[in-house]
């Protein structure tokens, strides 16, 4: 959503208007991502959390979900990300822009006006930290709603507010935020790869003498899709553990590493890559939609405000 040639804009991006632009554009991108990617996400989560033998693969998950609930079954659990997606993505893209501003301020004597790949990655990592405050509870509710249709025991929820109410009653704020550590361990490195890959791809697609901000939407789609693939290439193992921690009955795991140990002991190391197929299938279209929404929103803001 930002380009390597706009270092002055990044350094001056602390203005209220730029903050609002980053925040709202990120939210628009997130809504686009959910609408495109939720069926893939549901398939991934069910593969990650189901008992061995429940499904033969991603296609089997889809067939059983559609047979049970119709095509709308592929959007089970979509309300939590839709309700949370605006603050999650809005905060992520805002925090990314603010992290770039911070890097510029911490390096006043820099020799290059452009951030390096490592600096883009650092800004991406930092953006995941405040975002977790929203991501963790939203994903906790989403996971519980997603697994509800696959025949597992436990409470049956009427919707996202029923989930949150039950979780709070069960264990207070701590229960609502279960999986926060796993979320940071997934989204920190994942966001580093995500934003760095986006910036690098945009730069590679920019003709000599042009600015990345002038790229057409087709190039934005390619860069956004590449960013998604880069993120999920490294994010699946912590995502598997996050899904298991957030969906398991209270007391099943004492923490992230206990979940990793028990998962490997019970299902083998390969279990840490469950859901890789749906995640990678989702990565390109969902994140292409994300950055398309972000860039289109920013251009709209630039035109009218």
TrEMBL record:
Entry keyword annotation includes S-adenosyl-L-methionine: no
A Gene Ontology term for the protein's cellular component: mitochondrial membrane
Solcar repeat spans: 17-102, 115-204, 215-300
Chain ranges passing through the membrane: 78-96
GO biological process, one term: mitochondrial transport
UniProt keyword terms in alphabetical order: Membrane, Mitochondrion, Repeat, Transmembrane, Transmembrane helix, Transport
InterPro entries: MCP_dom_sf, MCP_transmembrane, Mitochondrial_Carrier
GO molecular function, one term: O-acyl-L-carnitine transmembrane transporter activity
Membrane topology: Multi-pass membrane protein
Compartment list: Mitochondrion membrane
Listed Gene3D superfamilies: Mitochondrial carrier domain
Keyword field contains Transmembrane helix: yes
Domain of life: Eukaryota
Family per similarity comment: Belongs to the mitochondrial carrier (TC 2.A.29) family.
Listed name of the protein: Mitochondrial carrier
């Amino acid at each position: 959503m930002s380009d390597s040639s706009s270092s002055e804009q990044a350094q001056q991006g602390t203005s209220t208007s730029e903050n609002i632009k980053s925040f709202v554009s990120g939210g628009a991108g997130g809504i686009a991502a959910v609408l495109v990617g939720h069926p893939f996400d549901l398939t991934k989560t069910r593969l990650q959390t189901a008992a061995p033998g429940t499904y033969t693969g991603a296609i089997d998950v889809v067939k059983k979900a559609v047979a049970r609930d119709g095509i709308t079954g592929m959007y089970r659990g979509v309300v939590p990300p839709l309700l949370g997606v605006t603050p999650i993505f809005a905060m992520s893209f805002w925090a990314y822009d603010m992290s770039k501003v911070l890097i510029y301020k911490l390096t006043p004597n820099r020799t290059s006006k452009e951030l390096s790949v490592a600096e883009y990655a650092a800004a991406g990592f930092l953006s995941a930290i405040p975002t977790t405050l929203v991501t963790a509870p939203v994903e906790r509710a989403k996971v519980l709603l997603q697994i509800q249709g696959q025949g597992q025991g436990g409470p049956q929820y009427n919707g996202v507010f029923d989930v949150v109410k039950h979780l709070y009653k069960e264990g207070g704020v701590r229960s609502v935020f279960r999986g926060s550590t796993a979320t940071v361990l997934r989204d920190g490195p994942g966001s580093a790869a995500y934003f760095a890959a986006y910036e690098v791809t945009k730069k590679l697609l920019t003709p000599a003498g042009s600015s990345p901000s002038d790229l057409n939407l087709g190039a934005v789609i390619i860069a956004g899709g590449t960013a998604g693939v880069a993120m999920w290439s490294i994010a699946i193992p912590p995502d598997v553990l996050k899904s298991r921690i957030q969906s398991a009955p209270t007391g099943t795991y004492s923490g992230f590493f206990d979940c990793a140990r028990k998962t490997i002991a019970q299902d083998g190391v390969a279990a840490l890559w469950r859901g890789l197929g749906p995640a990678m299938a989702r990565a390109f279209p969902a994140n292409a939609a994300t950055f398309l929404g972000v860039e289109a929103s920013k251009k709209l803001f630039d035109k009218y405000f």
